[in-house]
Design brief:
Length: 84
């Protein structure tokens, strides 16, 4: 079952985004977890603002946090509309 937490994310989405915001690469997240690379790529591309090939900067991390907050405040439909 695909359960969502209070911010509208699945536990896998929340875990991947937390690792991503902590500075891990897609490949690093895959090495750290048992998640399929395709799942990680999908999650990052759905929720990350900016290029996926990037070095972490405070502004990108803050932009990601604001985006996730907007998804939490408006529901998952916000993210789906942005990526339609």
């Amino acid at each position: 079952m695909n359960r969502r937490n209070s911010n509208g994310l699945t536990s896998r989405e929340a875990d991947v985004l937390a690792r991503w915001d902590a500075g891990r690469s897609i490949q690093g997240i895959a090495r750290d977890t048992s998640y399929p690379l395709s799942d990680i790529e999908r999650i990052v591309s759905m929720f990350h603002i900016g290029p996926v090939d990037r070095r972490h900067t405070p502004s990108l991390i803050e932009a990601n946090r604001r985006y996730v907050a907007a998804v939490a405040a408006t529901g998952r439909s916000f993210a789906e509309a942005c990526h339609a």
